[in-house]
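Amino Acid Chain and Its Fold in Token Form
===========================================
Structure side: the spatial fold of the chain, written down as a series of whole-number tokens.
Position: the record begins directly beneath this header, with no further notes in between.
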Amino acid sequence: VTEPAGPFGNHKCDSPLVLADSLLSAMNEFGSRATFSKYICREGVRDLKAWNAQMAAKVGAPVFGAIGIDSAPVNGFPRNDTTTSLDAQWVFDTQSAGWKVSFSAANQLDHISGSYSVVIKDLNLRCFAFQSNHLIHLSFWLYDTDNMPADPNGIMAFIVIVDQLQAAEDANERAWLFGHIPLGTADIFHNQSNYSDQIVQRYKRTITTHFYRHSHKDQFEITYSDYDNQTVETADSIAFIGPALTPTSGNPAFKLYDIDPDTLEVMDMKVFITNTSDPNFQTKREPSTWQFYYSARKSYGPLTTPPLAGSSPLDAAFWYILTEVFESNNTAFQLFNERLSRGGDVQQCDDEGGCRNTTICDMRVLR
């Protein structure tokens, strides 16, 4: 052993349970007024059970989760109409049992391939957690047929038809979509990403926000009514991505969102971290180890012209204007680049080799 991991882990290792436990304590401290919380899971079956119990014991608000990539093998989520001895049902059964303490819709996990919806009646909000792992190029069971299905396991049909977005529209509800893999990344098949975007455009007046993970980075992506004419006027939906607890991707972090209770749009996004390079990182075991990192509104709002008004949300138009700031203001872009890893694994990204241009391009597409 040349570098002991320490009780809280190491930047070369995944998250130990004690680090996850301190995260939950910090969430309760900094988010004591939260209405509910959400998370995207990536643990194995034993960890899933322990993690569900851990959250039930420590998180004061209801928890809405979305299933990540981990099955056995990884990405092992077969289509319903294929022949295989492998079965991911144990993932759905485990999470269905674990999440029922927070919401009754968890039983939908049993038969909708890990997807569900739930209505937050006090907020007039409908939340959709959908299994985006069925849409990725690493899903082995999309390759065992000459006719790749447009909608594996009916995930998109679930979002649109089965009492979901249409029901939300009919009831004049607002909707949030969340899942593991962002629909605009290269991991999603082009066709499925395009189909998903058509759904988003059809219900763009109902959907206010998307939430994803997967990249382990603090990012965002934008959708447009016209991708051939990407402007502040055509930007119409925003997705918030990451960050992650995993130390290998940078400093462990979580986000708190300030939500307008009337429009259900995001008014601010606040990031909290624990600094793995702090000399006391391995000795403190209280939430004070976690600290406020930055507020998107306070940090990025003054950079736009005109500055973000006090009553304006962090919507797609705001983030599109910010991408224009990043094009002209390299200092602002480098601040964003540092925050991708929460300052824990900063990679050089400038105009040499087109890194800055590619990164800004990635921000601008959720398709």
